[in-house]
Predict the 3D structure of the following.
Amino acid sequence: MPFPPDFLFGTANADHQVEAHDPAREDVWDLWERCQGLTPRGRGTDFWNRYEEDIAAAAGMGCKLFRFSIAWARVEPAEGEFDAEALAHYRRLADCIQSHGMKVMVTLHHFVWPVWLERDHGGMIGEGFPDFFARYADKVAEALGDLTDYWITFNEPSQLTFGYIKPWWHHRYYMPPGLPRGTSVDAEAEAVGKFIPNLFRAHARARQRIQKRDPAAKVGVNPLVTGFPTWLQMLMDWGACHRGLSEAVFKFTAGDALVRERGKVDLVIGGVTGGDQTRFEFSDPYLRTGKAVLVVAGFAGGDLASLAGKTVGVVAIGNQPQGWKRDLPGSVRKKMFSNYDEARSSLAAGKVAAVYGDAFFLLPFELKDRERFRFLVTGLSDEHYVAVAPHGHAPLMEHVNRAIAGFERELAGYGREPWISHPEAVVKEVARPLSLHEMFAGEDSLPESISGTRGIRRILRRGRLRVGIRCDAPGASAECAGEGLEVRLARLIAREVLGDADALELVPLSPAGRLEVLESKSSWLNWAWRFWGTTSLIANANWWYLGTSGRLPEELCPAEAVGAQDFVGLDYYWGLPTRRLHRFRLLEEAAHGRFLRAPVWPQGLFHALQRFHRWFPGQELLVVENGCVPQADGMTRGEYLKAHVAEVERAIGRGVPVKAYNYWSITSNREWGHAFDPNTDFGLCFVDLDKDPELKRVKTGEVGVYRELIREKTAVR
C-alpha cells in the first residue's frame, strides 16, 4: 500500500559526530574522549562547512525531512553569553534544508552540553539545570523557530542514565559525566532519582518557551526503544512504575557480581581489545596500535597495490578478524596462520609475500634480527589493547588501571615505534579519571573498599599473580629477546597488587584460546544477573513515555511534564524475540559499539509503534532514528532498511498514524569515542574519517535502495 501523501522520509546527523572539534567551545564529550582515552571526533565530517553537500544528497534521494542538532557549547560558550554568529550559522543551515524542499527537525541536546554547565552547576542533576536548558532553548527558538517544523529536546534520554550508573560488569561509566570513584550503588540510585525529574522539568520548560514564540511548534523527544517480547516489555514497564521496587531490584542486581568467577589465570595480557568479548572485566587501554602489513626488507613494492595477485599471510585472530577483507587488494591470495611466529617464518622463507596483522606483534622491538623485515604500511586501523579478568574482580581491575597509568610513562621511550599508530594519544603521564568530577577536581584516589584487600585475597594468599600471555608475544616467544612491553606491564601490576614485581607467574597461551582460561562454570549465573539488572531497570523500561502519560510517580515525573509533547518520537535499532532471549549478549555488543553483531528484529519496531499508539491515540508517531552498519546479524544494510520500512508500512496499515521515518545517518560519522571501522559506520554516504584528508562523500549502494523505497512508497496510485 502507498504511504500517506504527506509522509516524510528523511535522514539525520548530530553535531558532536559531524562538526569539527573547536578547542574554544568544547563540550563534555570532548573532555570525556580525552580523559577516557577514546577516539576523539577530530574534524568529524566537517559538516559545519559542508552541510550544503549533505543536505543536497538527502534531497537527491527524495527525502522530505532532515534532522540536525545544535551544539549548545557553540551557542552558549560561557554561561549566559550567546554567540550570535553560531546561531546565525544554524539558521543558514535550516534555511538550506527548506530551500531543498525538506522540513526541518532540530535537536537541542544530542548527548552533549557545555563544560561550564557540568563544572560550575552540577550538570543535568544540578538544581538549576531545567532553567538553564529552557533559557538555551528560548535563544535557539528566537533564532530559527520560524524555520523549524519539529523540535527534539533530548535525544535518547534513557541512554543518558548511563552517565550516573556503572553496573558491576562495567569498569567505567559508559558516558559522561560519571560519578566520583568509589560511589556506592545507593548514591548512583540517588543521582538517577535527581536526573529523571530534572530532565522532565527541563523538557517541559523548554517546550513552554519554544511555544511562547511559536504556539504551533511541535516539540517532543525520541527515546531509544529496544525490541523485546510484549510480555517482557510489560513486566519492565510495570516495574518502572513502582519506584521502591525498581530501586530495590536495581541495587540488588547492579551492585555486585552474583558470583566471583575464577579462571585458570588472574589476568590475560595479550593483544586483546575490548571488542573480543562481553563476558569479562576490561581494564583501561594500555596500548594503541593498529593493523599493518609486514614484508621482507628487500621487497620491491611501496604500497598495498604492490601485493596484487600475491599470497599474503593473515593472522586473523581476535581483533577485527575480517579486517584483511577491508584493507588488502581484492586479488590477493590469503594464507591463514595461528600465530605471528609461524607467519614471520613463512615470510622469511619466501612462502608468502607479506603478512597482515597487528603491528605490535608483527615487528616487536625485541624481535631477533628484526632488520630482516620492514613495514609496507601501518595504521590501517585504530585498536586499543586491554587487560582482561573474569567477572567479579573489579577491585583487581582498579589496581591494574593504576599500574597502566605508570606503564604509560614507560611508553614514552617507544613513541617513535611504527607499531604505535598515534603515540601522542598513548604516551600520557596521567591516570584516566573515572568521572568528569575527578577531572575538574584533580582527585584520583581509591576508596578504602578498593585500596584494601577486598577482592584480591586469593592472590595475596597465593603470593603471586598469574598472568596469561600469548605464546607469540615478546617474553614468551623464542623469536624475541627480552621481556617485551606486555611482560613489563605484568610486572608493574604485580608490584601494585603484591608489592613485588617478581611475584609473577606467566602462563603462555595459544592466541586463539587466550580468553578460554578466564571462563568458569559459574559464568551463566552472572549472565542471568546481568540480563535482569539491565533489561528490567537500567535502559529498557519506557520510563519517558510512562512519565508523560501520567503513569510514573510524581516524584519522578513532575506534573508540569505530563502530556507535555506534541508527537511521539522513537529510535529503534535492535531487538530480540522470545526465542532469542538467550542471545542477550548481542545487545551488550551493541552497547559497546560493536554493531556488526547486534541482534536484528524488525518486528520489534511494529510492536513499539502499536504500543505507543495505544498510549497516545491522538498523536502522530515519528521514527526519528533507524539504521544499520554495513551488515548486522546476517542482514545487509539494504535488507535491514527494507525490512524496517515494511514494518512501518504494516503499522500504517493497522491504523497507526506514523508521520515520518528517518534513516540514521546521511554520512559516516564519529560514533561516540569508538574507533571508526565497519562496526560503527551507519552512513548512507561513506566518508573515510581516518584516511581521507578531503573527507569525500562516496555514495553506498544503499543510497539507491533508499531512493527507490521512497519513490515506491510515496508514488501516487
About this structure: The CA atoms of residues 64 and 102 lie 4 Å apart.
